Amino acid sequence: MGRNSLLDWLRIRRRGLEDALTARGKAHTLSLERYRLHRAIAAAIAEHAQGDCLDAGSGRSPYKTMLQKYAEQVISIDVEDRSGDTDMLADIQSMPQIHDASFDTILCSQVLEHVPRPWDAMGELARVLRKDGTLILTVPHLSIIHEAPHDYYRYTRFGLAALCEPCGLEIKKIQATGGLGCFILHGISAGLLSTLGGIPLIRWVVFSFNYLILVRLPDLFEQLIGMPQLYPCDYLLVATRVDTGDSD
After folding, report:
1. Would you kindly state where each structural domain of the chain is located, as residue ranges?
2. Per-residue pLDDT tens for 131-148?
3. What is 3-241's CATH number?
Protein backbone atom coordinates (compact mmCIF):
# COMPACT_ATOMS: atom_id res chain seq x y z
CA MET A 1 0.00 0.00 0.00
CA GLY A 2 1.50 3.34 -1.09
CA ARG A 3 1.65 6.43 1.08
CA ASN A 4 -1.33 8.11 -0.62
CA SER A 5 -3.37 4.91 -0.47
CA LEU A 6 -2.61 4.55 3.24
CA LEU A 7 -3.66 8.15 3.93
CA ASP A 8 -6.87 7.69 1.94
CA TRP A 9 -7.62 4.50 3.89
CA LEU A 10 -7.05 6.29 7.19
CA ARG A 11 -9.31 9.17 6.14
CA ILE A 12 -12.09 6.72 5.25
CA ARG A 13 -11.64 4.91 8.56
CA ARG A 14 -11.66 8.23 10.42
CA ARG A 15 -14.89 9.39 8.76
CA GLY A 16 -16.54 6.08 9.57
CA LEU A 17 -15.37 6.34 13.17
CA GLU A 18 -16.78 9.85 13.58
CA ASP A 19 -20.07 8.85 11.96
CA ALA A 20 -20.42 5.88 14.32
CA LEU A 21 -19.55 7.85 17.47
CA THR A 22 -21.90 10.70 16.56
CA ALA A 23 -24.76 8.28 15.87
CA ARG A 24 -24.28 6.88 19.39
CA GLY A 25 -24.04 10.32 20.98
CA LYS A 26 -20.39 9.69 21.84
CA ALA A 27 -18.58 12.10 19.51
CA HIS A 28 -16.96 13.80 22.51
CA THR A 29 -15.17 10.57 23.50
CA LEU A 30 -12.97 10.59 20.39
CA SER A 31 -10.20 12.70 21.91
CA LEU A 32 -9.29 15.19 24.60
CA GLU A 33 -9.79 18.02 22.09
CA ARG A 34 -13.34 16.88 21.32
CA TYR A 35 -14.09 16.30 25.00
CA ARG A 36 -13.08 19.80 26.07
CA LEU A 37 -14.78 21.44 23.08
CA HIS A 38 -17.97 19.49 23.75
CA ARG A 39 -17.97 20.51 27.40
CA ALA A 40 -17.58 24.20 26.56
CA ILE A 41 -20.31 24.09 23.90
CA ALA A 42 -22.67 22.19 26.21
CA ALA A 43 -22.24 24.84 28.91
CA ALA A 44 -22.84 27.67 26.41
CA ILE A 45 -25.95 25.97 25.04
CA ALA A 46 -27.35 25.44 28.54
CA GLU A 47 -26.79 29.10 29.38
CA HIS A 48 -27.82 30.81 26.14
CA ALA A 49 -29.92 28.59 23.84
CA GLN A 50 -33.59 29.63 23.60
CA GLY A 51 -36.43 30.34 21.21
CA ASP A 52 -35.82 29.69 17.53
CA CYS A 53 -32.36 28.19 17.03
CA LEU A 54 -30.22 27.77 13.92
CA ASP A 55 -27.58 25.02 13.81
CA ALA A 56 -25.45 26.57 11.08
CA GLY A 57 -23.11 24.18 9.29
CA SER A 58 -24.58 21.34 11.33
CA GLY A 59 -22.53 18.51 9.78
CA ARG A 60 -23.39 15.29 11.61
CA SER A 61 -25.64 17.30 13.98
CA PRO A 62 -23.90 16.26 17.23
CA TYR A 63 -25.60 19.06 19.19
CA LYS A 64 -29.12 18.97 17.77
CA THR A 65 -30.59 16.88 20.59
CA MET A 66 -28.94 19.12 23.17
CA LEU A 67 -30.25 22.27 21.48
CA GLN A 68 -33.76 20.84 21.43
CA LYS A 69 -33.75 20.69 25.24
CA TYR A 70 -33.56 24.48 25.46
CA ALA A 71 -34.87 25.89 22.17
CA GLU A 72 -38.46 25.91 20.98
CA GLN A 73 -37.39 25.07 17.43
CA VAL A 74 -34.07 23.94 15.92
CA ILE A 75 -33.34 24.32 12.21
CA SER A 76 -30.18 22.67 10.90
CA ILE A 77 -28.49 23.81 7.69
CA ASP A 78 -25.41 22.67 5.79
CA VAL A 79 -24.12 22.48 2.25
CA GLU A 80 -24.77 18.71 2.31
CA ASP A 81 -26.87 16.36 4.40
CA ARG A 82 -24.38 14.39 6.50
CA SER A 83 -26.72 13.53 9.34
CA GLY A 84 -29.72 12.37 7.33
CA ASP A 85 -31.99 14.96 9.00
CA THR A 86 -30.57 18.30 7.85
CA ASP A 87 -33.52 20.67 7.46
CA MET A 88 -32.12 22.91 4.74
CA LEU A 89 -29.24 22.84 2.26
CA ALA A 90 -27.59 26.25 2.46
CA ASP A 91 -24.18 27.94 2.41
CA ILE A 92 -23.68 30.15 5.48
CA GLN A 93 -21.83 32.67 3.29
CA SER A 94 -25.14 33.44 1.57
CA MET A 95 -28.53 32.43 2.96
CA PRO A 96 -31.15 34.38 0.97
CA GLN A 97 -33.75 31.72 1.80
CA ILE A 98 -33.60 32.77 5.47
CA HIS A 99 -35.28 36.05 6.43
CA ASP A 100 -33.60 38.77 8.45
CA ALA A 101 -33.81 38.47 12.24
CA SER A 102 -35.23 34.93 12.18
CA PHE A 103 -33.40 33.31 15.11
CA ASP A 104 -32.88 33.90 18.82
CA THR A 105 -29.85 31.59 18.99
CA ILE A 106 -27.29 30.41 16.46
CA LEU A 107 -24.76 27.63 16.95
CA CYS A 108 -21.92 27.48 14.42
CA SER A 109 -19.28 24.96 15.52
CA GLN A 110 -16.02 24.27 13.66
CA VAL A 111 -17.37 25.65 10.38
CA LEU A 112 -15.72 29.01 9.79
CA GLU A 113 -12.37 27.47 8.80
CA HIS A 114 -14.09 25.73 5.89
CA VAL A 115 -15.57 28.78 4.14
CA PRO A 116 -13.39 30.92 1.86
CA ARG A 117 -15.19 34.15 2.84
CA PRO A 118 -15.68 34.05 6.62
CA TRP A 119 -16.51 37.78 6.71
CA ASP A 120 -19.52 37.06 4.50
CA ALA A 121 -20.50 34.13 6.72
CA MET A 122 -20.34 36.25 9.87
CA GLY A 123 -22.37 38.97 8.18
CA GLU A 124 -25.06 36.44 7.28
CA LEU A 125 -25.11 34.91 10.76
CA ALA A 126 -25.53 38.41 12.23
CA ARG A 127 -28.24 39.25 9.67
CA VAL A 128 -30.46 36.28 10.54
CA LEU A 129 -29.92 36.73 14.30
CA ARG A 130 -32.55 38.73 16.17
CA LYS A 131 -31.65 41.80 18.21
CA ASP A 132 -30.20 40.67 21.54
CA GLY A 133 -29.97 37.13 20.14
CA THR A 134 -26.90 35.00 20.89
CA LEU A 135 -24.30 33.52 18.57
CA ILE A 136 -22.33 30.54 19.93
CA LEU A 137 -19.39 29.89 17.61
CA THR A 138 -16.27 27.71 17.77
CA VAL A 139 -13.19 27.72 15.57
CA PRO A 140 -9.80 25.97 15.59
CA HIS A 141 -6.46 27.64 16.21
CA LEU A 142 -4.36 24.45 16.16
CA SER A 143 -5.53 21.75 13.76
CA ILE A 144 -4.26 19.41 11.09
CA ILE A 145 -5.41 19.95 7.52
CA HIS A 146 -8.86 18.41 7.24
CA GLU A 147 -11.81 18.37 4.81
CA ALA A 148 -9.27 19.27 2.09
CA PRO A 149 -9.39 21.19 -0.17
CA HIS A 150 -12.00 23.14 1.81
CA ASP A 151 -9.76 24.04 4.73
CA TYR A 152 -8.88 27.73 4.54
CA TYR A 153 -8.23 29.42 7.91
CA ARG A 154 -7.12 29.16 11.53
CA TYR A 155 -8.21 31.81 14.03
CA THR A 156 -6.96 33.89 16.94
CA ARG A 157 -9.14 35.76 19.42
CA PHE A 158 -8.11 38.96 17.66
CA GLY A 159 -9.27 37.63 14.28
CA LEU A 160 -12.62 36.69 15.79
CA ALA A 161 -13.01 40.18 17.23
CA ALA A 162 -12.19 41.71 13.84
CA LEU A 163 -14.91 39.59 12.20
CA CYS A 164 -17.54 40.47 14.82
CA GLU A 165 -17.15 44.23 14.97
CA PRO A 166 -18.40 45.19 11.46
CA CYS A 167 -21.47 42.96 11.86
CA GLY A 168 -22.91 44.56 14.98
CA LEU A 169 -21.95 41.58 17.13
CA GLU A 170 -20.92 42.38 20.69
CA ILE A 171 -18.54 39.82 22.17
CA LYS A 172 -19.54 38.48 25.58
CA LYS A 173 -16.85 35.82 25.86
CA ILE A 174 -13.92 34.32 23.97
CA GLN A 175 -12.65 31.17 25.65
CA ALA A 176 -9.78 28.84 24.72
CA THR A 177 -11.22 25.31 25.04
CA GLY A 178 -7.94 23.44 25.02
CA GLY A 179 -4.21 23.77 24.50
CA LEU A 180 -1.20 22.06 23.03
CA GLY A 181 -1.97 18.79 24.82
CA CYS A 182 -5.36 18.62 23.11
CA PHE A 183 -3.79 19.13 19.69
CA ILE A 184 -1.13 16.43 20.18
CA LEU A 185 -3.42 13.84 21.75
CA HIS A 186 -6.18 14.34 19.18
CA GLY A 187 -4.05 12.84 16.42
CA ILE A 188 -2.95 9.95 18.63
CA SER A 189 -6.52 9.12 19.66
CA ALA A 190 -7.89 9.36 16.13
CA GLY A 191 -5.11 7.13 14.78
CA LEU A 192 -5.53 4.57 17.55
CA LEU A 193 -9.30 4.28 17.22
CA SER A 194 -9.22 4.29 13.41
CA THR A 195 -6.80 1.34 13.32
CA LEU A 196 -6.74 -0.89 16.41
CA GLY A 197 -10.23 0.25 17.33
CA GLY A 198 -11.51 -1.52 14.23
CA ILE A 199 -10.38 -4.98 15.41
CA PRO A 200 -13.48 -6.66 16.91
CA LEU A 201 -11.72 -8.76 19.57
CA ILE A 202 -9.96 -5.80 21.19
CA ARG A 203 -12.24 -2.93 20.21
CA TRP A 204 -13.72 -2.37 23.67
CA VAL A 205 -10.25 -2.44 25.25
CA VAL A 206 -8.93 0.13 22.77
CA PHE A 207 -11.90 2.48 23.21
CA SER A 208 -11.76 2.16 27.01
CA PHE A 209 -8.01 2.82 27.05
CA ASN A 210 -8.43 5.86 24.82
CA TYR A 211 -11.23 7.40 26.88
CA LEU A 212 -9.71 6.74 30.30
CA ILE A 213 -5.98 7.23 29.58
CA LEU A 214 -5.90 9.64 26.61
CA VAL A 215 -9.02 11.70 27.34
CA ARG A 216 -10.12 11.79 30.99
CA LEU A 217 -6.74 11.46 32.70
CA PRO A 218 -4.97 14.17 30.63
CA ASP A 219 -7.99 16.42 31.13
CA LEU A 220 -6.90 16.83 34.73
CA PHE A 221 -3.53 18.25 33.65
CA GLU A 222 -4.33 19.96 30.36
CA GLN A 223 -4.69 23.44 31.84
CA LEU A 224 -1.08 23.16 33.00
CA ILE A 225 0.65 21.23 30.23
CA GLY A 226 -1.52 22.48 27.38
CA MET A 227 -0.84 26.20 27.95
CA PRO A 228 -4.15 27.28 26.31
CA GLN A 229 -3.35 30.98 26.54
CA LEU A 230 -0.19 30.51 24.42
CA TYR A 231 -1.27 27.50 22.36
CA PRO A 232 -5.08 27.52 22.17
CA CYS A 233 -6.41 24.48 20.37
CA ASP A 234 -9.93 25.84 19.80
CA TYR A 235 -11.85 28.98 20.71
CA LEU A 236 -15.44 29.35 21.81
CA LEU A 237 -17.05 32.71 21.12
CA VAL A 238 -20.32 33.98 22.60
CA ALA A 239 -21.64 37.21 21.06
CA THR A 240 -24.95 39.06 20.90
CA ARG A 241 -26.57 41.03 18.10
CA VAL A 242 -26.84 44.62 19.29
CA ASP A 243 -26.89 46.72 16.12
CA THR A 244 -29.75 45.98 13.79
CA GLY A 245 -32.35 48.11 12.09
CA ASP A 246 -34.67 45.15 11.48
CA SER A 247 -37.86 44.86 13.46
CA ASP A 248 -38.72 41.54 15.03
Report:
1. 3-241
2. 999 999 999 999 999 998
3. 3.40.50.150
